[in-house]
Amino acid sequence: MLLEGFGPQILLGTLATVKLALCSLLIAVLAGLIGASSKLSSNRLLRALAAGYTTVIRSMPDLVIMLLLFFSLQMLLNRITDWLGITQIDIDPFLAGVVTLAFIYGAYFTETFRGAFQAVPAGQIEAARAYGMTRGETFRKVLFPQMLRHALPGIGNNWQVLIKSTALVSIIGLTDVVKATQDAGKGSMQFFYFTLVGGLIYLAITTVSNGVLLWLERRYSVGVRKAAL
Amino acid sequence: MTAILESYWQSYLWSDGPHFSGLVVTLWLLILAVAMGFLLAVPLSMARVSHNPLLRLPIWCYTYVFRGTPLYIQLLFFYTGVYSLHVVRSQDFLNAFFRDGFNCTVLAFGLNTCAYMTEIFAGAIRATAHGEVEAASAYGMSRFTLYRRIILPSALRRALPFFSNEVILMLHSTSVAFTATVPDLLKIARDVNSATYASFTAFGIAGVLYAACAFFLIWLFRRGELHWLAYLKPRTH
Hints:
Distance between the termini of chain A: 53 Å
CATH architecture of chain B: Orthogonal Bundle
CATH architecture of the largest domain in chain A: Orthogonal Bundle
Strand content of chain B: under 5%
CATH class of the largest domain in chain A: Mainly Alpha
Oligomer: heterodimer
Order of helices and strands of chain B: HHHHHHHHHHHH
Shape of chain B: flat
Number of helices of chain A: 8
Strand content of chain A: under 5%
Number of helices of chain B: 12
Number of strands of chain B: 0
Distance between the termini of chain B: 54 Å
CATH topology of chain B: MetI-like fold
CATH class of chain B: Mainly Alpha
Largest sheet of chain A: none
Number of strands of chain A: 0
Radius of gyration of chain A: 21 Å
Largest interface: A-B, 35 and 39 residues
Number of domains of chain B: 1
Helix content of chain A: over 70%
Structural class of chain B: mainly alpha
């Protein structure tokens, strides 16, 4: 057989990777929206907090933050459970992976969304307010749809980096596609072949996301004229 | 925290006794990977923008594969994958080369960053003003002279901001080197973590050192941009 009986295992690993990436993307986008709003807010404390968050996270390697959070969170939890006198709770590796990846990529999304919000002309917001829209309506109907067009290329880039970052979670003990293919390599003594399989799966995922991103960019650029060169 | 710093600062920075370790190894990896990537990327980017599909398509394929897969998988490929092949083990030179985790790491990092740099430089070459190229042809320059005197000097300058980004990303990517038994900064942090159980401090010190390097590199590249890209600054008068 093509995958020497390791097919189901690798499929499960692939599903875990995709699930991890999508869950982290969702939370990271939310964190990015909150971060961008704080960066653009008039509150000085919020601005400083958001600036600290993006600077610290973006200046350190993902893997360092991942290990730091993974070990420290567990120890913090152990201290709390000890103090409460209940049995130790082990953090689920999947949850830990989602939380750390979302925390890291939230910082990158913050910068993406900040730039995109600033790219929407101020006149649009003024006009919306003049029509009597509330702040929430202005955000939902005017600011957000226009912001998204500017943010999409950045979101696409972040997504591609995030997908590739998920390969690192096998280091903190998650059974993802890397772990599955390495185990298959160990089991069959064919490391070369199975590492190639792992690489091809990632290549397929990035190729599919390229297509989706292209479609989304077209969808959100409806009515925008490109300069004819 | 002070106790950890006192007993491990030397390992974090440059040596664990008999061997180099920590920051020095990380920076050495970075320098080797960036140097290898840059030297390969300049000719490859010229081939990438070529009209000849036999030159262009293989380079496109190479950058597509290396930019579409995680660096960690590429490292595993060279470190565990290639070395498991019988062909590699039976040849003395290849056997010696791939047995050493450091060689595999530099190879994987260099090829990875080269793929990104090739695309960066190719983009800059394509953005060269066509009038410059026409003028050079009118002067009777050969293709080689055209690239050497006109296209490359301006394209490499314009690529500098993106190049600096890639170098910072590479600095961050070097942290996977410990999986191939290279004693880099993160490996020391992991050792300290398992010796002391002070995770936050152990990894925090490594994080601060990485951040310091990143900021230093950013400062260095800003200086370079001020110098080499001065002619692109918006005019104020």
